[in-house]
Amino acid sequence: MKNIDHWIGGARVAPGSGAYFDDLNPVDDSLYAMVAAGTSDDVNSAVEAGVAAFRMHRNLPAAVREGWMFKAAEIMERDVAKFQEVLIDEVGSPVAKAGFETRFAIGFLRAAAGVPRRVRGETIPSDTPGRFSMSLRQAVGVVAGITPFNVPLIKGIKQSAMALATGNAFVLLPSEAAPRLADLLADLWREAGVPDGLFNIVYGNGAEIGDALTGHANVAAITFTGSSRVGKHIAGIAARNLKKYTLELGGKSPLIVCADADLEKAVGAALFSIFMFQGQVCMGASRIYVERSIFDDFAKAFAAAASKAKMGDLREPTTMLGPIISERQRDRVRSHVDDARAKGAEVLAGAEWTGNCCSATVLRGVTADMTVYYEETFGPVTSLYPFDTLEEAIELANDTEYGLSASIFTRDLDKALRFAHEAESGMVHINAPTLHDEPHVPFGGTKASGFGREGTEADLEIMTEWKWVTIQSATANPSGH
């Protein structure tokens, strides 16, 4: 156990209130760390440190920022075991998932190393004789980032690396359930050479201090990953204050299995799509639609595979299911399953608990009056539904307020492409799981699943601002006569 203080201006700073909160290991809810409980004054200190550092370092060459990314990747490779240990003990990541997070983060840092040299504009023809016209991209200033508990390293690296690579300062408000991972990021960026004040962290309850950060007059852009409810609230703050923002929110992602699909591959992909990290993933395939002629065969094979999904030692490579993050979230998972059962749904596999771990749960016969039909469970729970035509499958897939990720398994290219075009989703994967991400892609969703996109290309839209510059020749007549 350790105490974790804010990281402001290149130093660890105790909370102004003197208060700390408990960070628990979700395996047994034992105390893992004591964490600074931030106040609005702490937020203000972090933002102002970012403002001062941005003004001091805004003209650093691209090569310097590029160097931070390469160095950070080297450090993370060296310390990969340390990052994985925290992911396992702080948020209950099975080691396979912790390994995926560290590999992705390292890859993202290397991809972000190319960003500083891509912050460029263009020359533009001018209607005025003798006038040279060009556009520039410039850093916006201070970027605020709010990250979730489920992939704290991926999101922490995505947000901070892009802000720093584009020349901004960054203030991070991490999930209350993943502060120690954020503390590692402070050490990472410091060792990588990032000047004091360009990377800052304030810990605390987002419901109490989130508005102080996102609404701060000197925060120019916001990048948030979390629930749709909070995302809509942040969007309102950003709109009122004319701030740039991106939101990566919840999901109720559909996976379609057509009769001509490779059944074994579809079962394996569905298993990964919903039970990786015990279903605490926004892209989780919590709705699986199977063509009626193969529905029973798929249900039998999938339920059998789900019943073999291993719970247990998080450091064992074959373990798939770890603990649900908190008692509040465990109650949500239980209530969704209990409500479905009480209203007539059949449990094909799972719905059993071992300590804080829920077994891989597969439901059949779920109807629209059940909570689990529309709401995101954010746990290892999925429902199977039959369909007769592709048109019906598309209609069912789109019958949700969410639109993050979708997947279809078929050997028919026409069906696959039709689904890709008609699915109301920010991402569509053909013959692949609903879970996938890469550093350079436009990652994000539609409807209640988000606003804007993340990625080394897409993030330029909120991390930089366009500026138009003209130069008039001293010898030319700007009137054109």
Automatic annotation (TrEMBL):
Record-level Gene Ontology MF annotations: salicylaldehyde dehydrogenase (NAD+) activity
Chain ranges of the Aldehyde dehydrogenase domain: 19-469
Annotated catalytic residues: 248
Per UniProt, the keywords (alphabetical) are: Aromatic hydrocarbons catabolism, NAD, Oxidoreductase
* E.C. code: 1.2.1.65
Q: Which CDD domains match?
A: ALDH_VaniDH_like (cd07150)
Q: Which InterPro entries match?
A: Ald_DH/histidinol_DH, Ald_DH_C, Ald_DH_CS_CYS, Ald_DH_CS_GLU, Ald_DH_N, Aldehyde_DH_dom
Q: In which pathway does it act?
A: Aromatic compound metabolism; naphthalene degradation
One Pfam family of this protein, by short name?
Aldedh
- State the source organism's domain of life: Bacteria
Q: Which PROSITE patterns does this entry report, sorted A to Z?
A: ALDEHYDE_DEHYDR_CYS, ALDEHYDE_DEHYDR_GLU
Q: Does the keyword Chaperone apply?
A: no
Is-annotated flag, keyword NAD? yes
Q: Which reaction does it catalyse?
A: salicylaldehyde + NAD(+) + H2O = salicylate + NADH + 2 H(+)
Report the sequence similarity comment from the record: Belongs to the aldehyde dehydrogenase family.
Q: What is this protein called?
A: Salicylaldehyde dehydrogenase
